[in-house]
Each structure stands twice: as structure tokens, then as C-alpha cells.
Amino acid sequence: MTPKTEAELAQMITGANGPLRIRGGGTRPIGQCTGDALDTSALSGISLYEPGALTIVAGAGTPISEIEQTLAAENQRLAFEPMDHRALLSTQGAPTLGGMAAANISGPRRISVGACRDFMLGVRFVDGQGNIIKNGGRVMKNVTGYDLVKLMAGSYGTLGVLTEVALKVLPDVETTGTLRLHGLTDRQAVQALSAALGSPFEATAAAHLPNGPDGEPVTMLRIEGFETSVKYRAGKLQELLKGYGDVAVTLGDGSEWAAVRDVTAFADQPGNVWRISAKPSDAPELVRRIEANAVQYDWGGGLIWALADEGRDLRAALGDFDGHATLIRGTADVPTFQPEIPALAAITTGLRAKFDPRGILNSGIMS
Amino acid sequence: MEMPVPDASVLSRKAQIVERLSDVLPPHAVISDERETHAYECDALTAYKCPPLCAVLPANTKEVSDVLRICHEMGVPVVPRGSGTSLAGGALPTADCVILGVAKMNGVIETNYDDRYIRVQSGRTNLSVTGAVETDGFFYAPDPSSQLACAIAGNIAMNSGGAHCLKYGVTTNNLMGVTMVLMDGTIVEIGGAHLDAGGLDILGVICGSEGQLGVVTEATLRILHKPEGARPVLMGYDNSEVAGQVVTDIIKAGVLPVAIEFMDRPCIEATEAFAKAGYPMCEALLIVEVEGSEAEIDAQLKLIMEIASKHNPVELREAKDADEAGRIWLGRKSAFGAMGQINDYMCLDGTIPVSSLPFVLKRIGEMSKDFGLDVGNVFHAGDGNMHPLILFDANKPGDLELCEEFGAEILKLCVEVGGCLTGEHGVGIEKRDLMNVQYDPADLEAQMAIKDIFDPAWLLNAAKVFPLATSQARRAA
After folding, report:
1. What residues make up the domain containing B379?
2. Using CA atoms, how far apart are residues B331 and B338, in angstroms rounded to an integer?
3. Taking CB atoms and an 8 Å limit, are B425 and A347 in contact across chains?
4. CA dihedral A49, A51, A55, A59 (to 10 degrees)
5. Which of A47, A134, A144, A174 best tests the B interface by mutation, with the highest count of B CBs <10 A?
6. Do B215 and B254 have their domain in common?
7. CB B192 to CB A172 under 8 A?
8. What is the pTM of this model?
9. Residues of chain B with pLDDT under 50
10. How much is the ipTM here?
11. Mutation test of the interface with chain A: which of B200, B248, B437, B454, choosing the one with the most A Cβ atoms within 10 A?
């Protein structure tokens, strides 16, 4: 099924007599899901772009590449830097706006500017009963009624099928500076990244690769802006971090961050991939506990990517911690998403029952 | 403004309700004497007043849970209250309600600079969150005008903004976790010191739910290191359309100021008479502030001044030192007080797409003549959040109603041009009956369905946000 309009989509959902598997570009499959494919690719196109208002509105099926090209022509960008999962998950196709929003996909810059959900200004969607619902709008400040935009972000299509998303965008930058420290232990690296992120010098990414490109640990920071400003802040950070060793600085277009964003280091390696959100200073201890085959730290330690043997339940190894773990690639005899505490699980179950009482939308993905 | 008829069966049980609440709270934490409950009869929307049945001031999450459990068992409505600074009537009581004030819960639980968060009790004021970390160079970014008095609980309920959200976002973008008590007394932990939700983003729905889903007792907030410096520049134009174009041009040039504030002539005149900030008399005044090191500020302001100069400003003034910066901000910060000196006023809070600014200002000017009431406009220009201040005379019969009618027309205009009814103050009772202008029945039904999950009996702040007729069936059930 490939609805061409929102109304047609609503009819299809109303008339559905079995589960539906919602598909944007098909580049980020997650969890177990069966049912008839419901393809959003025809709900495509940019309906509004006002560079002076930092706002873009487009259909859910719009390829992200189209949005990024349109923004680039005005020297703007999606600041939350959505990850491209194709290499990691060996998928083809074009990632879409709807898929990105439904999965709340962000990248390394999430640590400084916020996540995809923080840039989502408004949504239109069709719920499990075929109701067409809008929430939020196209303006940056809006507290009119409950914020269902956040609820839809990261709901993986289980509450409704997105048809349109309005996003806040930001200016692109003139220069990117990448700072590198070599040979740090995980603990030292997270401390160094915390020091940088807790400084006034506005790092926009903070990653640690225990096995960098040449097999040795590399700790990376990114600073962005006008060239004079980048040079100034790079100098300040070199000074701040000198206790951790020599800090090498390179200026350029920042393309080296795509590999961190897309976790390409795990792309061709066998095993399951876990994504763990944690309190940054807990991260080295958590990594010690899970004994993964490989890890990568992003968000100053707040995001751990772990490669582990198939079938292993990393949550058992993590134990009780401040955060959550999601199985992004592979299968194991465990839930894909972190089980919630009972009081929260009851709310989640209630919300699903309200928005999709028949349980037909991406059924089973999150539960 | 219509409010539901108080539940007679609750009013008649006042003694029993107070007794049960007194069983779980210390003696001074239950206020039931009519001479004292008057202190809670209104918030900052002072045109509407109603003393509650009683007020309670719990000191911790456990006590909040006990209070809510008892009210739930006895079928008593509850209205949560932070510091009572809502401009939308978010904390307005009903005669049959228990006011649950969080003011006693104002402590700092944990400060963590490595992981850049602070955990506080929700009654702590916004400014004192920053106060707890500023000697170490950190701050909490959302800065509503009432930040000296307003509580974090209220900030979370209303998803409060401020003047600096173009760069730092609003409350929801700076809130990492909460401890919340549901209406039946259940205590829920949501989020924490990590980022983003592992399942559905429940925290995102709670923020901005106007105290209708639960009572937040503790919050984990993101803190940031202060920038090395900040500097404003003031520019005056003889045409608001040109000022709007300057804002657009600055944003398009790739500079992201932390604040872009706009004032129109009536506001400039009022603030000059009141604060004598030395503002130029013109149609539109902009204050643009940038942050960073000295060199960075210089570079950004150079670009901004170039753009500003191209549009023939009547005045263009860069702050050379802290004193001059203070004077540039002085007028803006005293704008509301200055307008209050002239008259009673009603402060609106609609948001519009920035590109609609000239049209909206022109229409407001026309409507001002039609209604015979003066308006001054203060505006967070970078994000489109307008604060038209309508002047009226509270002692003149019918003037408040006329003012409200005018305000409603302005908010409808905001929606018409693609904006919304409220950018940062919240719906409360003030904009409740305009929700149908922005949302279709299905949109409101989806929102009310969420309240059904958290508070099936609709006891928590139930007469707010949704038009009374729309929520009637649920409140009566």
C-alpha cells in the first residue's frame, strides 16, 4: 500500500483488517514486525521553507537528502545531524523525514544542540483508528496544548503514521575544527571530553574511539563556527586539555565526523549492535561490565555503541543503571527496547491502547 | 471567564478532607482557615480570583503522594501551584479544590559538573537554580521574565521560555528527568542523567501539560558553562517592516544571536518615560545580543552592524562596556513595568512566523483603533513570540471584557498567519476557549486521551487547557 494523500492513508488504516508494517525509506529496520507494508514514500515534498524563519515543512516520505540539499542551497542544515544507518545495517534506499522523526534519529551534535525531537516543531499523523491529527505547528515557540510532537518522535510508528513534519533548522558553519588526543584510557577520555563540554568553548561533538583507525585510542572533539572563532576556541581547548597530552587540531569541512555519526567501524563486523544511552561519567564502568567485542563512545560518553556476540543479553551485564539500551542490529532472545519500570510501562500501554486500540501499527516493535 | 460549578459534595466534606490531609502532613502544612486560603485565590492573572477549599504545602515526594492518594480516594479536585506567577491562570483554584503548593520543596539534591546537570526539588525558583551553580561558572538556560519568583515546577508545567531561547531552547530542551506523582499517589521516575527516552518520550508530554498529568516534585536539569562574554547592540528603524527584514537578514547571514528583541513605538515611549534608558523615538527598536570571547563578539557584531547599516537605521549603538549593555537592556527589561505605570494591561503571548511580523503589526494597529484600546508590542523577534500589551482601565465597567475580546482577536490572527495561541505562557484558563481556533476536535480528543491515561477521573487542574464544553463529559464522569 502506497497512499498518495493523507486522506487516502486514513482510509487505508481505517479499512485495515490486519497488522500494518510502516515503511519510509526502509533503511532503519528495527525489532520484529510483521504485517502488510504501508509505504509513505508518496507523501513526499517540501511544502514550506523559510530560511529567515529557520523553518522547513515537508511530507513524511520526503528523502532526507532532498531536505539537506534544499537547506544547503541557503547555507543551512539539520543541526541534530541525523545518522545514516545504511552502512551499519546493510540497507539500501533513501532515508526519509518520517523515518527519522519516528525514530528520533540524531548524531554527534545531539550533545550540544539537542536531539531530532528538540528540532521538531509540528507533526501531522494518522492514528490507529484513521483519525487525522495535527500537533505543534511551524513556529519555534509553541506551548498551545499538550506536546504530542515529542510523543511521536521516537514512537517508531506505533502510535500513528506521520504524514508531515515541521523542523527548526540552523545556519551552516564556515569552518570545522577537529581536535584529537591519542592513547587515552576510556576513563581519561571521558574526563577530557567532560572538561571540554563543561567549558565555554562550545564543542559540538565529543567522541572516543578505543580502537581508532590505526587500532590505537583516539579521542575527538569538534568545534564549529567562523574561522577566527574556531581557531581561538581550538587554542583554548588545547590549553585546557594539555594535561591529557598533545592536542592535534585540523581545520576543514568536518567530514571525518560522518564515520563517527554512522558508526561505520562496526559496519562490516559480525555481531549484534547495541546503542546505550547513559550518564557520561558512568560510561567507562558500563563498558567494563559488558565486555563487548568493540565499543565507540559519542556524546562525551553519554552514548555507547557496542558490538557484541549474537544472542548475548547486554542488559543483563549492564545491570541497574541510569539509562537504557536498545538492540539496533541483530536478534537476541530479549526485547529490542529497554523494558520500562512498571508504573511507566502502564502509561505506555495505556497510550498505545488509546492511539492504536487494535494494535495494528508496527505491532510488536516496541513491546 | 467561566469556571465549573463547585462540587457540593466536596464542599460539604471540607472538615473530613482537611482532617485526613492533616493526618499525613505536619500542622502548618495544611491551610484551611478562610482568612488564610485567600493567599492562594489567584496567580498573576489577577483578574480572576477564587479561594480554594484548602491549601497544602508538602515538604517531599512522599507527602505529595499521600496528599494525592487521599484526594483521589475522596474524589477531590487538586490544583498544583508553583510560585503562582502564571499569566494564564494556570494555578487559579476552584472553590472545591485543594491547592497543592510545592514552595517548601526548594532544595538542591545534586550538582554534577562532569555530567552537566543539577537535580532540584521542583519548588526551587528558576533564578536560584542558576544561583546554585554560577559561582562555578555554570547556568540554567531558560530565563522567563518572572525568573526571580517562578518555580521550576511551573516552568515544567508551562514549558516556559525566555529571551534567550533562540540559542538555548525552552524548558523541554533543557529538562532531562523528573520525579512525578500521579493523581492516585503513584510515584514515577522518568528520564535521568542520560539523554533521550528508551521508549516513548513521556517526559516530552509531561513538559507543557500544565499540571494536568501529575505533580512534578524533583527535576534533573541540564546546566551549561557560561559564555566568556555577551554584548548587545541596539538599532532603531522608522518602519517595522524594515526591522523585520533586518532580523531575517541577520539569521540568513548565518549568525545565531542569543536574543533578538523587538519593541514598537508605544512601548518605547512608555519605557522611556519610566526607565529613561535613552532609547531613540522610532517605530521599531531591536536589541540583538551575541555571545562568546571578545574576538568572537567583535566578529559577529561586525557582521550584524553591516546588515543593520544597509537598512538605514535611525540609530545603531553597540555597547562598549557592561554599563552600556545594562542600559540597552534596561528599557526592555522594564517594558512591562512601564506599561503598568500607564494603565492596567493584559499581556498576550501568541507566536507568528517571523515573516508575518509587518502584516501582524499593521493589523494589530488597525484593530487597536477599532476597539479603542492602545497596544504596545514587545516581541522575541528571533523566534516569533509576540507579547502585545493591551492597555485598559480595570475600574471602567466593560473595559476588561473589551480588552479580552481584542486579545482573542489578536490570537486568532496569530493562528491565521500560521502561528499559535501561546508561545511560552501556556493556555490555562485564559486561552482555553480559543483552543478550537487552533485545533480540530480530533486534535483535542487526542490530547484529552492522554489525560485520560494519567488522570482518568480528571481531578488534576481539570478546568484548564481544554474548552469547558469540550472537556465537560470527562470532568462530569
Report:
1. 343-416
2. 9
3. no
4. 20
5. A144
6. no
7. no
8. 0.97
9. none
10. 0.97
11. B200
